[in-house]
Design a protein that fits this description.
The chain is mainly alpha-helical and 144 residues long. It has a domain of 74 residues: lambda repressor-like DNA-binding domains (434 Repressor (Amino-terminal Domain), Orthogonal Bundle). It is 59% helix and 7% strand. The chain has seven helices and two strands. It has a two-stranded antiparallel ribbon with strand order 1-2. A hairpin with an 8-residue loop joins strand 1 and strand 2. Helix 1 crosses helix 5 and helix 2 crosses helix 3. The longest helix has 18 residues. It is elongated, with a radius of gyration of 21 Å. The relative contact order is 0.10. The N terminus is likely disordered.
């Protein structure tokens, strides 16, 4: 199973719809009429400004003769690097407590807005635990 963060997936649905529409040489007005929605709503969906309802998505997929698995399979392949896939496999192998710890850590890092280069992985030297510990570079403060 491949995971794409929900927000990212919402952002990718619109451009994917636009790509499929353009491949079939349809205008927004033509596609909107075929699936019974307003052209302005379709435009906002394609820009990622408006969430696509499940009902609308199914009508779009039926119009393009694309299955939902084909539609989202392309999206996950476009967004997941081999390293991302390996991390997901590693996460699936963890027990529920360890998985919860990883989820908590990721949530914590998101609140900090830490750039990838600010955090590094290094082997844990202060315990006998198997695995890796996360260490953060020391922060330097300048006086004004």
């Amino acid at each position: 199973m491949v995971f794409v963060h929900k927000t990212r997936q919402v952002q990718l649905v619109g451009p994917k719809i636009r790509q499929l529409r353009k491949e079939r040489k349809l205008t927004q007005t033509e596609l909107a009429a075929r699936i019974s929605i307003q052209q302005s709503d379709l435009s906002r969906m394609e820009k990622g400004e408006y969430r696509v309802s499940l009902d609308t998505l199914f009508r779009i997929l039926a119009e393009f003769d694309v299955s939902i698995s084909e539609f989202f399979d392309d999206l996950t392949r476009e967004t997941m690097t081999p390293r991302d896939v390996q991390l997901m496999r590693d996460l699936q192998d963890l027990g529920s407590d360890a998985r919860r710890e990883v989820e908590d850590f990721v949530a914590f890092k998101r609140t900090q807005g830490t750039a990838p280069s600010e955090t590094r992985l290094s082997p844990s030297t202060n315990s006998g635990n198997v695995g890796r510990a996360f260490e953060q570079e020391p922060r330097r403060f300048e006086r004004s």
